[in-house]
Design a protein that fits this description.
Two copies of one chain form a homodimer. The first copy, chain A, is of the alpha/beta class and 309 residues long. The first copy, chain A, has nine helices and 14 strands. In chain A, helix 7 crosses helix 8.
């Protein structure tokens, strides 16, 4: 698909907490080049984003002359500049209308807003980056632009999102990935092994039940070894199954979705595969859409929408 | 109560993962001296327990001549020697029959067994130390030696225990305290402040709901600050309320107990007070019994039971 002679039309960046992924796109939104940088917002000193972008990102992709569009935590107060959230319901036009331009001494960049919703029981919730992935998923699936759809972006903070007629109407965040990280690194459930034991993962899924009483369910990861003679090598897989299973069991209902409502998973394919397995164990159908593809399509759609207005 | 002229009859130790608490007792089980040592099993090198006990604990309490009785993780494979668990149902006689004597070059020591149960959904569960506290609570409440009682020992790993006619018939462990520790130290919910904000604690209790969907409920601790404008200084109190509230909501049912079944809390009085508040918010009555008093009474009862047989 790549045509090396194409002049990049757009520099698109998904600039998150831990990583920056950047692509140059041609006039049709096709990827010319892709690069990743260990330049997450968490690693940036205050005021540093602009300089790293101009000195490192643009040259690495030979994109000194292309206008840029950015999404993710780069639009937070830890990033380049704080972009106000778009309130729910938020569709592509709403997000494009709230793009904020920043000056970089060259063709400039625009940063996408995040989205703010009512969250769990009205306590409020926010996302930055996933809204652009959802818009990209919609751009690639014109048939989904009407009707009600349940989307999940798994990760450190999994975002379960309800999409109605092309707009994000509500979402909740489950800190499933972060629970896995802190428990596998810092608790009595410490587990060095990778998530590579299908039987232990399935046992964790089964132990997740309806997702309730999680503090007690989690201890079964320890008790099954100490009291039940299970192999400790499967610890990470069991813990992952337990946490993902509990997330899959409990989160759709928080958005008023029936347990059998199909789920569109957007994210890293292997992690999405674990979620799909957890949903399948509950009789729920799921499809997977690559998170990088979704970000590219969403950023391109946002740029084109703004150009059109 | 203390009579400094009494010759100690017994050296009683609750020797856990992080601390060792020791008491000398007179012939009636009254405390003559109490000492705490930062000598938790987690800090001991293999084989070190006996030497530290003989060289530090006995002299500090002037108890070189008293027989000793020990409970807690000192009876695990990380402690002095591994003592087999007593199976449920386990009462005072069952535990006393399984005391194991260890040689210390002096009057010797006996170590109490832990208890093994079916745990959550039959995956097995274990306790070491709490069984002795439960026996002490029973010793101090003769009216509880018959009937069915729900006991909770809050802590790093909260033990919810069902006691029927004086014997432990089942229990589940909720890793509530450890979740608080790892989340407040290592996650996006990092909170330096103490649990000292009653309003934030009450808000956390309210947010605990039925205890389900915990990974999503936990993120409200972040979202209420980022999206809802709550004061981050209340973060530790809110997180504590959320976790203790979820534990109080979900755990009794795992043992087949009705939500309004009264709970006897055994442990550190301030932590027990937080649990009592969480239970009261759900309409459940609770009483508090000091964990150190329970350990002393349980160790004395075990020693006396063995003497009697």
């Amino acid at each position: 698909m790549r045509d090396p002679t194409s002049e990049p039309l757009l520099l698109a960046c998904d600039w998150g907490t831990t990583n920056l992924r950047a692509w140059t796109l041609d006039a049709e939104g096709r990827v010319l080049q892709a690069r990743a940088f260990p330049l997450g917002v968490a690693q940036l000193a205050p005021g540093e984003a602009r300089r790293r972008f101009v000195e490192e990102v643009r040259p690495a992709l030979a994109a000194e002359g292309a206008p840029a569009i950015l999404c993710g935590m780069i639009g937070s107060n830890l990033g380049w500049t704080a972009i106000p959230y778009a309130p729910c319901p938020a569709g592509l036009e709403d997000l494009a209308a709230r793009l904020v331009a920043v000056e970089d001494g060259g063709p400039g960049a625009r940063i996408a807003p995040g989205v703010r919703g009512d969250g769990f029981s009205g306590q409020g919730d926010v996302m930055r980056g996933e809204e652009t992935q959802v818009m990209g998923w919609l751009a690639r699936h014109p048939d989904r632009r009407m009707g009600r759809h349940l989307v999940c972006c798994p990760g450190t903070h999994a975002k379960w999102t309800l999409v109605q007629d092309g707009r994000i109407t509500g979402f909740v965040t489950a800190m499933t990935g972060e629970l896995f990280a802190v428990l596998s690194q810092h608790s009595v459930l410490r587990a060095d092994a990778a998530i590579d034991d299908p039987e232990a993962f399935a046992a964790g899924l089964a132990a997740a039940g309806d997702g309730g009483a999680l503090a007690a369910r989690l201890f079964t990861a320890r008790a099954r070894v100490v009291a039940g003679g299970a192999d400790p090598a499967g610890g990470a897989s069991y813990l992952s199954g337990l946490l993902i299973g509990a997330d899959a069991a409990a989160s759709p209902g928080l958005l008023g979705c029936a347990a059998d409502m199909p789920v569109s998973l957007i994210g890293e394919p292997r992690l999405c595969g674990l979620y799909r397995q957890a949903l399948a164990a509950r009789g729920t159908a799921a499809e997977i859409f690559d998170g990088a593809d979704a970000a590219v399509a969403g950023l391109f759609a946002l740029a084109r929408m703004e150009t059109a207005t």
